Amino acid sequence: MTPPPDRPDDDDSDDAALFRAAIGEVRRLPDAPLPPTSPKPRPRARMAERDEAEARDEFRHALEENLLEAGDALSYRRDELPPRVFARLKRGEISAQEELDLHGSPVREAEALLRAFLNDAREHGVGCVRVIHGKGRGGGNDFVDSRGLPVLKNLVDRMLRQRADTLAFHSAPPAQGGTGAVLVLLAPRKRR
Q1: Which CATH number is correct for 73-186, 3.30.1370.110, 2.60.40.1080, 3.20.20.70, 3.40.50.10440?
Q2: Orientation angle between helical segments 151-162 and 107-123, nearest 10 degrees
Q3: How much is the pTM?
Q4: Mean per-residue pLDDT for 155-168?
Q5: With contact defined as beta carbons under 8 Å apart, do 156 and 114 qualify?
Q6: Contact indicator for 70, 136 with CB cutoff of 8 Å
Q7: What are the boundaries of the region Disordered (predicted)?
């Protein structure tokens, strides 16, 4: 028996032969260069990061030992500030030029607000500000922790102590908010 004339195998081989005959000799193209590799990540100082984390933990534990209660007064003075200026601040004789009220703010938001407020005050040459943090007695919007301690008050105390631009702070006199507010004396901005 003879194969039928329309076999696909015969057509494929004839087509390939015809194609090679029409094209002629073929030259292989060089391989395309590999795409550039992404840069290696910068080395991390893992020991320094771990030391920093441990220092933060120790600092937090030390702060937790000295937490303030609702009626406690906030008080701090750097050595370079004369005691007589601090005494004037305690008596409320240095007027606050700006004020921030943190009542009802969640802790993270209060921290961001306080940081931005103090940076802005310093940037604009404000020397004394008042921060209202509340007494933390658990009523209304004042926040207290599980031990009944005022969260915002302790946050403000901790943040102000850590800032290099804070010369001194003290709870406001009763007429200006008492232990629910703090007067902060800021260092003048250094000129460049």
Answers
A1: 3.30.1370.110
A2: 40
A3: 0.63
A4: 90
A5: yes
A6: yes
A7: 24-56
